[in-house]
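Protocol step 4 of 5: obtain the predicted structure for the target chain.
Materials: sequence only (see below). No template structures provided, no constraints applied. The aim of this step is simply to have a reference model before the mutagenesis design in step 5. Sequence pasted as it appears in the construct record:
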Amino acid sequence: MAARNGNQTAKRPGKSPEFMEKLKAFVRTRGANYLKDTNISSIGIGFKIRDDQPTEELSIQFTVKRKAQPEELESLDTTPIPPTIKVDGVDVPTDVIQRRYERAYKVVSENVSAPRKTRIDPVVPGVSVANKAETAGTLGCIVFDRASATPYILSNWHVLHGPNGRLGDEIVQPGPHDDNRVQLNRLGTLARSHLGEAGDCAIATIEDRSFEPEIYELKTRVEEVGNAELGDKVIKSGRTTGVTHGIVRRVHTLVKIDYGPPIGEKAVGGFEIGPDPENTAPNNEISMGGDSGSVWLFKGKTGKATKVMAGLHFAGESGSDPDEHAVACYARSVFDKPEISAHPPIEAQAAIARGGRGYAPAFLGVRVDVPRLSAGNRRDAFRLNGSEVIDYMHFSLALSQSRRLAFWVAWNIDGSRLKKVTRKGIAFVFDARIPAELQAGDELYAGNALDRGHIARRADLTWGSLPEARRASLDSFFFTNITPQMNDFNQGAIGGIWGRLEDAVFDEVDVENLKVSVFGGPVLRRDDREYRGVRIPREFFKILAYVEAGRLQSKAFLLTQNLDQLELLDLSEFKVFQVSLPEVEQRCGFTLPAALKAGDSFGERLRQRPESLAGRKALQGLAQIEW
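Step 4 output (structure tokens):
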């Protein structure tokens, strides 16, 4: 450890974490003042360079746009850098290197395969992305809101925001430079951004695409963030140069970058990466224009990428600089500024309800809104944060306070991304956001023939990334999504028809993108019979919506239930009918969206040959459905 008197030079003080923190504090508090010098392009901490080789002597490193003789300094509007700087009583040597930096965003010639530059669904990190008014950068990784667990993409400010952007801007994948059909490539919207000493970072929503967190070609995902130190080996996957390897050679660095008008020069904090001589890149380029937003991961002992993020790539050498290097923001900083995490909060994973990515109206590519309750039902609806629509992962619902059951549940099914997730050990629970007395719980189901019947099927909801699917599985067990059903209906032959309606649409119809939206729930009639303080529904509805041959289609079904067997031994028959959407509206006390009713071809045929429900034959099998 270096001596504490002012006459000693700092030999290898990097072995002292305490002294390194003091050097870091020096750069953080005084570095910006040095960058006011027009010739200084950065200040950081690195090993002093002698004869073009790094020594073991720790130094405060300055990079300058041009090294000059003393007599030239005045003409460059610059001042000499002292040979040492005193930090906490220790004279730390300085080092001066000629180097310029620029955003790693300017689009240049390409040397990687086309898939990174095409539209991808599910979207993955490592591919082209940008604000629709910008060119092209790299999607770094999938991150999650620390409070709500909402998933976002992470990239740079200058990729997702840009000098003329604003929050709410549309984000496209791929970026416009790679595909200028921005109207076809919408991914989401700009949610939060930051440009300053803490980093160059931004996050955007994922709305019109599904996602997978595994980084393209690295076959790993970000699960933790680490702190880069001198000598650490790192690896990234970027839009332009693909997978490249590097070594951290300067830390706690402030880099001056010109972001163009109207922003101008900004000082951005991070660390510098040089090439790894044991893993050279083509043309020795570890980064090029378009790699902005890439995630640098630490490498493990085997040389492969770990799940630990070192930093977010945002800049590289200028075109005239012969030295190859890259600069990245510290991972911790770019996670703290937008308040994001590498994984959903534990509370959200455990399905302690805080709301999820609920029913998506635009899921099918045609907007299909949720039902609009009648005036009387709106007065009876429970409101969460002022809204009668209560969100969970992949589904939403409206809850009747007087009946303690849902008016309706709406959910989306992505048949191409279904996951097998175990239900073992999952209990039916109250939603903690809603008073327990407004939910029908286990007291209703003990010692009788009633089943806890899911309205939105668990198997319909377990799609998307594995964390999403697991959370959706857990959310499906809230009592708000449960309705009392006779056990032979829920488990028997007719119940099989009812429970397989969602599967049937995939089997019988050429569903575009394997996506289906569903509405379902009990028919809450005034004359429903009360049992243990809850009026038990004897009818249920279900509506399927999907796109076939470019046109929205909708099919509605009704199931009637005889409740006598609650006290009698004889089993009654359950009947499933195909019905029109207006019949569902009339029974349920809500209005369905016009787009949904326009796709009701069965209802149109009924209008042409009217007949009562009583005169209609019940479905005896799925083959009798009129698709």
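Step 4 remarks: The radius of gyration is 31 Å. The mean pLDDT is 84.
Proceed to step 5.
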